[in-house]
Amino acid sequence: xxxxxxxxxxxxxxxxxxxxxxxxxxxxxxxxxxxxxxxxxxxxxxxxxxxxxxxxxxxxxxxxxxxxxxxxxxxxxxxxxxxxxxxxxxxxxxxxxxxxxxxxxxxxxxxxxxxxxxxxxxxxxxxxxxxxxxxxxxxxxxxxxxxxxxx
Length: 151
What we know:
It is a single chain. By secondary structure, the protein is of the alpha+beta class. The chain has one domain: Nuclear Transport Factor 2, Chain: A (Roll), CATH 3.10.450. The protein has helices at residues 14-28, 32-35, 56-75; strands at 10-11, 39-46, 52-54, 82-93, 96-105, 122-131, 134-144. The chain has a 7-stranded mixed β-sheet with strand order 1-4-5-6-7-2-3, covered by helices on one side.
C-alpha cells in the first residue's frame, strides 16, 4: 500500500477566519450583499435541503429574499439569529482553503420550523480560492446538524 500524503499546508488559515467573520457580521444585520460579498461569480451552493444553486446571481436573489423575510421576523421580535463557528480549517494548496463551519441557530434552539432556513443548526463545507490577492468562495455544501442521531 502506498503512503498516504498529508495534504494540509497549515491549520486554520486566516482566509477562513476572515470569511466567517464577514458572514457573521452580515447575518447580524441581515445584509445579503455583505453575506455574499466573497462569493465567486460561478459559486456552487448546496442547500441543506438538497438543492444546488450555480452562480452568484441566483444565490444572491435567494439570500436577498431570505434576509428580507428575516428582517421582518426580527422586527416582530421572532428572533432567528445565528452564530457561526469554525470547526476545522485547512490550507490544502497555496491558494485553496477548505473549512467545516457550523451555524448555530440561537433563537429557535431545538425547534425546527418548516420553511425557515435559520431554524435549525447546520454544518457547511466551504472551499475558498485565492485570486488576485482576495479569497473567494468557490463552493459551499450545507447539511442539517443531526449529530443527535449518532449519539
